[in-house]
Amino acid sequence: GIAVPGELSVAGFDDTTLARTVWPPLTTIHQPMAELARTATEILIAGGDINHRRLPHTLIERASVAAPTRNSE
């Protein structure tokens, strides 16, 4: 009974196919899954020397979020 995004904005993570097919379409963060897998494999092959690495990610805005509104109460 809560209107999305009128009363509540909803966002997810991973930008799955489901995010595009639900109603309303879900705003998500897209991660480069192939690049994540490739980087993880390279780290393991190199002997597991794990350094922090930041891979690019993208905000995918869809219909599940709206700008905040002022409550008149």
Strand order, biggest sheet? 1-2-3
Tell me, rounded to a whole number, the average pLDDT. Answer: 88
For the sheet with most strands, the description reads: 3 strands, mixed
Beta-strand share of residues: 5-15%
How would you describe the shape? elongated
Q: Helical segment tally? A: 2
Instruction: Give a count of the beta strands, DSSP E runs of length 2 or more.
Output: 3
Low-confidence stretches: none
Give the % helix: 10-25%
Question: Would you kindly provide a written description of the structure presented here, covering whatever features stand out?
Answer:
- Helix content is about 25%, strand content about 15%.
- The protein has helices at about 15-20, 35-45, and strands at about 10-15, 25-30, 60.
- A three-stranded mixed β-sheet has the order 1-2-3, with no helix packed on it.
- The model has no long low-confidence stretch (mean pLDDT about 90).
Question: What is the topology?
Answer:
Elements: E1 11-13, H1 17-21, E2 27-30, H2 33-45, E3 58-60
Parallel strand pairs: 1-2
Antiparallel strand pairs: 2-3
List keywords for this structure.
73 residues, 3-stranded mixed sheet, alpha+beta, 2 helices, 25% helix
